[in-house]
Write a structure and sequence with these properties.
Blueprint: H1 2-23, H2 37-52, H3 56-68, H4 72-84, H5 89-101, H6 105-118, H7 123-135, H8 139-152, H9 157-167
Helix pairs in contact: 2-3, 3-4, 3-5, 5-6, 7-8, 7-9
């Protein structure tokens, strides 16, 4: 009797593995192959939204592509959803970078400052935001932020690099 049970169990086990292997096709490239760019992009973004799950950084990354890809309302909806919950300072920072990349300095500045309100000791954030202020032509505010960043961490290569770059017209590395 034990042999029959073991054989039955093994049969069901192998059958389950086989069914799982055949059920999973892998990545379905028909969501983009042969489609126009807009349709392919939208299909891939639908998949990316599922893949992002509940991760805030992941959802912001998907929202970025929507926003910068000409579907601002969809991207903004994702940002609003992420930021309406217990948003981390880094969530605000990432959304600020998207706005900056889109050429929306006012919105970017608000998001960056919201991040820094939640994390006042972010020397790298202060240096990066200062660089953006300088690149936008506000040297006084930029240098105030540079001073604050250096007071927190005077020996930080990334801060010094971002600050130097801003004086030379180079945006900070993201």
């Amino acid at each position: 009797m034990k042999t029959k049970s073991a054989v039955a169990f093994l049969f069901v086990f192998v059958l389950g593995i086989a069914a799982g292997a055949f059920a999973r096709k892998g990545f379905d490239n028909t969501i983009y192959r042969g489609k126009d760019k807009q349709e392919a992009g939208k299909s891939l973004l639908e998949l990316a939204r599922k893949q992002a799950g509940k991760g805030s950084w992941e959802r912001i990354a998907v929202g970025r592509v929507y926003y910068l890809g000409g579907m601002k309302a969809e991207g903004q909806a994702i940002f609003d959803e992420v930021l309406s919950k217990k948003a981390e300072p880094s969530d605000w920072w990432r959304v600020g970078r998207v706005y900056r990349e889109a050429g929306e300095w006012s919105r970017a500045r608000e998001a960056f400052e919201k991040s820094l309100e939640k994390n006042k000791e972010d020397d790298r954030g202060l240096a990066e935001l200062g660089a953006y202020y300088l690149l936008e032509g506000d040297r006084e505010k930029a240098e105030e932020l540079f001073d604050r960043a250096n007071a927190l961490n005077a020996d930080e290569l990334w801060n010094t690099s971002a600050i130097a770059g801003a004086y030379l017209g180079v945006k900070p590395q993201e």
